[in-house]
Amino acid sequence: MGEFTSTIEHRLDQAYKGLQEARTSGDDFLADTLTAEIEDLRRIAVDNGVAIQ
């Protein structure tokens, strides 16, 4: 696994964890922001041939 793939996976992991915490605490703005970040990271991964789960 390359550094790019590792970085994308790490950032996605952190974003998903943050999203869960934001939803639990009722922070809708943060949840929306993290959802957009996740969508962007997933798009970047696909555009660069990185398989994500």
User: Using only CA atoms, what is the Rg?
Assistant: 12 Å
Helix content: over 70%
Oligomeric state as shown: single chain
How many strands, which pairing sense, and closed or not: the largest β-sheet?
Answer: none
Number of strands: 0
Our count of helices gives: 2
Q: Which segments are poorly predicted (pLDDT under 50) over 5 or more consecutive residues?
A: none
Q: Which series of helices and strands comes N to C?
A: HH
Tell me, rounded to a whole number, the average pLDDT: 95
Structural category = mainly alpha
Shape designation: elongated
Report the sheet-strand fraction.
Answer: under 5%
Distance between the termini: 14 Å
Explain briefly what this protein structure is.
The chain is mostly helical and 53 residues long. Helices cover 81% and strands 0% of the residues.
Descriptive notes:
This protein has 53 residues and is mostly helical. Helix content is 81%, strand content 0%. The chain has two helices and no strands. The protein has helices spanning 3-25, 28-47. Helix 1 (3-25) packs antiparallel against helix 2 (28-47).
